[in-house]
């Protein structure tokens, strides 16, 4: 059989005559975390119109396609769900705010009057990105938090404080690996342990932190027990 005269050759000739083409239209832009590049990039949100082509020329509409997200750097297309992943800058801000909220919640459970607990909280918050955090600032914020939630120091985690924790941790949890979620919980545990064993109120707050981070209760108990056995 001569080259190009078999079934594959016929299909190749037909594909040069008939085909489909997609015309893309920009429908928005912004910045996203590109999974192809592995970093923050600009993007365009595209919608497409598919058409049959004859000899390379569009002739008949075939319907809409997309929308898709096109990376401005690598030009790869992704589903729009890729926009649910925070950018690196946004993720860092979410993590910083989460650690700050956990520190305040643990201090509100009884450590705000302890110098060692405040020092541990300041170290955690500064490491998370609030470089200018001070003990005085945290103590003032705990007082404001208690006034806002109607909570008294040393009480179990009430509804107002639980809402504050969930608002800070719920959006972050899906984007943290298991070890990352555990790290946030353990930072709270170290603050609680800085001035002695856990109080019931501190355990209650840390259990709420674990639940917001989607850590099961058995693992929360295990992690808190391991932290208590680790020398500070």
Automatic annotation (TrEMBL):
<dbReference type="Pfam" id="PF05099">
    <property type="entry name" value="TerB"/>
</dbReference>
<protein>
    <submittedName>
        <fullName>TerB family tellurite resistance protein</fullName>
    </submittedName>
</protein>
<dbReference type="InterPro" id="IPR007791">
    <property type="entry name" value="DjlA_N"/>
</dbReference>
<feature type="domain" description="Co-chaperone DjlA N-terminal">
    <location>
        <begin position="119"/>
        <end position="222"/>
    </location>
</feature>
<dbReference type="InterPro" id="IPR029024">
    <property type="entry name" value="TerB-like"/>
</dbReference>
